[in-house]
Amino acid sequence: MLEEDHILILEDFLPYRLSVLSNTVSNAIAESYGREFGLSIASWRVMAVVGRFPNSSAAQLTSKTAMDKVAISRATAKLEQQGYLQRQADNDDKRRFSLSLSQEGQAIYQKIIPIAKHYESRLLQDFAPEEQVLLKSLMQRLESTVVDW
Amino acid sequence: MLEEDHILILEDFLPYRLSVLSNTVSNAIAESYGREFGLSIASWRVMAVVGRFPNSSAAQLTSKTAMDKVAISRATAKLEQQGYLQRQADNDDKRRFSLSLSQEGQAIYQKIIPIAKHYESRLLQDFAPEEQVLLKSLMQRLESTVVDW
DNA sequence: GGAATTTAGTTTCAATTGCAACCATTTTAG
DNA sequence: CTAAAATGGTTGCAATTGAAACTAAATTCC
C-alpha cells in the first residue's frame, strides 16, 4: 500500500477528469456559438437567463449564472453593443438596469436553445432514460457536497 | 410541449452544471495549493505527472495533462524558477529537455498528493464504494462520448 | 548530401480575466 | 435628519491565457 499512497494517477483523479470533461464540452459549445453568433460562454449564459427571466437586473444574474458581477457587466455591455440586449433604467432604484432581449436577441435566443439542447442530447446519447436520471442524481449529490467549498 | 422546447433551464443544463461543479472543485484545490505552495492548477498538474513519470519531456506532458505546449512551457519555466523542477538537456535530441523534480520539488510533491486525495475523498464522501464505482463508470462513458468533439 | 518538412519548445502580442478601487444610489442606525 | 454602511454596477490595472510566429534541431525525401 505504500506506493499507492504517495502517487497520484492524474487520469483517474476525479477533479481532473471533471475539468477535462467540462472543458471539452464547454469549448465545443462555445466554438459553435462563437462562430455562428459571436457569443462567448458568458454571453450565452446571460442570454439564456435573460431570455427566460426578462427584466432581470445584473445582480439577479450573478446568482443565476454563477458569474461574478464584473463578468456580468462585461457580458451585458458587449451584448448591448451587439444589439442583442437592451438595458432600461429602473426608476425605483436608479442604480439598477432592467435587462431584456432585443428583437434580434430574441431571434438569436430562439435559435440557440435548440442547439444547446442538441449538445446536451449528444452528451447523453449513450445513456438510457433511467441512466440519465441516475447521472443527474449523482451530479446533484456532488453539487450539494461542494456547494459551500 | 411548446414551452419546453424553446426555453432552457440553465441550472438543469448538464454542460452548465458540469462547468460550475468542476470550477468549484478546481478553485478550491487551487486555492489550497496556491496559498501553501505557490502552485497554479497548471503547475500542480505538471508536478503530478513529472513526479510519477520522471524524465518526461514537455511534449509527453501535453497528452498526460490535457494542457497545450504553451501552457506546459510556462508552467515548467515557473516551476524551474521556483526550484521545484529541473530540466536536463537531452543529448539524443537537443530540442528536448528531460524534466524531473528537484529535492525540494519531491518534498512538495509528497505533501501535495495526500492533499489532492483528501479533496477527492471529500468530494466522494457521501458515496458508498459501489456508488463511487458507478460514478466513475458514468464519467468514463461521458468521456468517451466527447473524446473527439 | 541537401532542401523541404516536421517536431520541440519559446516568445510575442492581443484578448480575457480577476481584483481592487471607484461612483452613484439606497438603506440602516443613531 | 444625517452620517455610515451596504448595494448595483463600472472601470483600471496587472496577471493569465490563446494564437500565431519564431528558433533550433531532427527527419523525410529526392
Automatic annotation (TrEMBL), chains A, B:
SMART domains: HTH_MARR. Keywords: DNA-binding, Transcription, Transcription regulation. Residues 11-144 form the HTH marR-type domain. GO terms for molecular function: DNA binding; DNA-binding transcription factor activity. The keyword S-adenosyl-L-methionine does not apply. Gene3D superfamilies: Winged helix-like DNA-binding domain superfamily/Winged helix DNA-binding domain (1.10.10.10). PROSITE patterns: HTH_MARR_1 (PS01117), HTH_MARR_2 (PS50995). InterPro entries: HTH_MarR-typ (IPR000835), Metal_resp_HTH_trans_reg (IPR052067), Tscrpt_reg_MarR-type_CS (IPR023187), WH-like_DNA-bd_sf (IPR036388), WH_DNA-bd_sf (IPR036390). This is MarR family transcriptional regulator. It comes from Alginatibacterium sediminis. The lineage of its organism: Bacteria, Pseudomonadati, Pseudomonadota, Gammaproteobacteria, Alteromonadales.
